[in-house]
DNA sequence: TATACGTGGAT
DNA sequence: TATCCAAGTAT
């Protein structure tokens, strides 16, 4: 079973959300910032931060001129703050090597920090109307169901997943980009992971999963990601202290966030230093990088 | 290919 | 309350 692109595009044109990074006036930079922020982070949390960023840093060189600490503060609690550092580095590269204009070529985009297979193609497609297979978690789920008749996508396989989507893509560039947006929108709003709204689905009639009687997912179990008590949680707490204070802090102020296990806490702090998310200044205090 | 990497809302 | 899950990337 396939997916009819015209049906999808018609549905998208009728029902899509009016997100700011989808407006015609939005620049490639606006699209890139949105794509990085949206990695593993819901639209509702991204939108207000995206607005602030585009207002404050309307072009890559503007972001590049800010310090890493400023950028991390502005990132707030979006999560995975290494994304903010990579976007900052990408902005510097774009400013210096690409005339302050986000590249439209997939391979050029892939060479930038924080931009992988998904983001490079999303920017090429959504900012520049290029024809490229844009494969995110939504698209993988929609294809798994509508095309393969499975309850959900199995483990990601970049080559296979992109080939799957490539086979569905309209030949026309602009329509291919629109179709990709439609596929993602369907996965985000209708063909959702938990309770799919099949009654509202534009491709209900041709969906292989429907025809097969909506079998449950039978692939390998997905690793459940824990958070409470992990290094990720401890790192988050440490960083939260530094985001909240304009001045550098002594180690004692960091120690209080995880008194249970000093060894592990110190290793987390060390890993933050290694990642460049935290800096130790000359007098021994700790701070966000680049501000002191 | 498997794993680490933040955060918070929904169920 | 516990678990799931959200437009992934780097290693």
Automatic annotation (TrEMBL):
<keyword id="KW-0408">Iron</keyword>
<dbReference type="InterPro" id="IPR000445">
    <property type="entry name" value="HhH_motif"/>
</dbReference>
<dbReference type="GO" id="GO:0034039">
    <property type="term" value="F:8-oxo-7,8-dihydroguanine DNA N-glycosylase activity"/>
</dbReference>
<feature type="domain" description="HhH-GPD">
    <location>
        <begin position="37"/>
        <end position="189"/>
    </location>
</feature>
<dbReference type="InterPro" id="IPR003651">
    <property type="entry name" value="Endonuclease3_FeS-loop_motif"/>
</dbReference>
<dbReference type="InterPro" id="IPR011257">
    <property type="entry name" value="DNA_glycosylase"/>
</dbReference>
<dbReference type="InterPro" id="IPR003265">
    <property type="entry name" value="HhH-GPD_domain"/>
</dbReference>
<dbReference type="Pfam" id="PF00730">
    <property type="entry name" value="HhH-GPD"/>
</dbReference>
<dbReference type="GO" id="GO:0006298">
    <property type="term" value="P:mismatch repair"/>
</dbReference>
<dbReference type="GO" id="GO:0051539">
    <property type="term" value="F:4 iron, 4 sulfur cluster binding"/>
</dbReference>
<dbReference type="InterPro" id="IPR044298">
    <property type="entry name" value="MIG/MutY"/>
</dbReference>
<keyword id="KW-0004">4Fe-4S</keyword>
<dbReference type="InterPro" id="IPR023170">
    <property type="entry name" value="HhH_base_excis_C"/>
</dbReference>
<dbReference type="GO" id="GO:0046872">
    <property type="term" value="F:metal ion binding"/>
</dbReference>
<dbReference type="GO" id="GO:0035485">
    <property type="term" value="F:adenine/guanine mispair binding"/>
</dbReference>
<dbReference type="Pfam" id="PF00633">
    <property type="entry name" value="HHH"/>
</dbReference>
<keyword id="KW-0479">Metal-binding</keyword>
<keyword id="KW-0234">DNA repair</keyword>
<keyword id="KW-0411">Iron-sulfur</keyword>
<dbReference type="InterPro" id="IPR004035">
    <property type="entry name" value="Endouclease-III_FeS-bd_BS"/>
</dbReference>
<dbReference type="GO" id="GO:0000701">
    <property type="term" value="F:purine-specific mismatch base pair DNA N-glycosylase activity"/>
</dbReference>
<keyword id="KW-0326">Glycosidase</keyword>
<comment type="similarity">
    <text>Belongs to the Nth/MutY family.</text>
</comment>
<dbReference type="GO" id="GO:0006284">
    <property type="term" value="P:base-excision repair"/>
</dbReference>
<protein>
    <recommendedName>
        <fullName>Adenine DNA glycosylase</fullName>
        <ecNumber>3.2.2.31</ecNumber>
    </recommendedName>
</protein>
<dbReference type="Pfam" id="PF10576">
    <property type="entry name" value="EndIII_4Fe-2S"/>
</dbReference>
<keyword id="KW-0227">DNA damage</keyword>
<dbReference type="GO" id="GO:0032357">
    <property type="term" value="F:oxidized purine DNA binding"/>
</dbReference>
<keyword id="KW-0378">Hydrolase</keyword>
């Amino acid at each position: 079973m396939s997916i009819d692109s015209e049906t999808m595009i018609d549905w998208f044109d009728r029902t899509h959300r009016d997100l700011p990074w989808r407006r015609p006036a939005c620049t490639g930079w606006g699209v890139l910032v949105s794509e990085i922020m949206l990695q593993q982070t819901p639209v509702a949390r991204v939108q207000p931060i995206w607005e602030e960023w585009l207002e404050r840093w309307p072009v890559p060189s503007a972001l590049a001129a800010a310090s890493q600490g400023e950028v991390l503060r502005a990132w707030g609690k979006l999560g995975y703050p290494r994304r903010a550092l990579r976007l900052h580095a990408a902005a510097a590269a774009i400013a210096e090597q690409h005339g302050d204009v986000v590249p439209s070529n997939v391979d050029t985009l892939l060479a930038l920090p924080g931009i992988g297979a998904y983001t490079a193609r999303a920017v090429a497609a959504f900012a520049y109307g290029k024809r490229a297979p844009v494969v995110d978690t939504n698209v993988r789920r929609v294809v798994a169901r509508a095309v393969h008749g499975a309850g959900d996508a199995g483990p990601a396989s970049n080559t296979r997943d992109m080939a799957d989507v490539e086979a569905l893509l309209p030949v026309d560039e602009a329509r291919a980009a629109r179709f990709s947006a439609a596929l993602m929108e369907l996965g985000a709003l209708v063909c959702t992971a938990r309770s799919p709204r099949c009654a509202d689905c534009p491709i209900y009639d041709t969906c292989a999963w429907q025809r097969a009687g909506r079998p449950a997912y039978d692939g390998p179990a997905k690793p459940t990601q824990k958070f409470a008590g992990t290094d990720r949680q401890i790192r988050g707490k440490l960083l939260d202290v530094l985001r909240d204070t304009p001045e550098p802090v002594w180690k004692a102020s960091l120690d209080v966030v995880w008194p249970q296990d000093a060894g592990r806490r110190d290793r987390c702090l060390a890993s933050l230093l290694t990642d460049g998310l935290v800096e130790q200044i000359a007098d021994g205090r700790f701070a966000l990088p680049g501000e002191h």
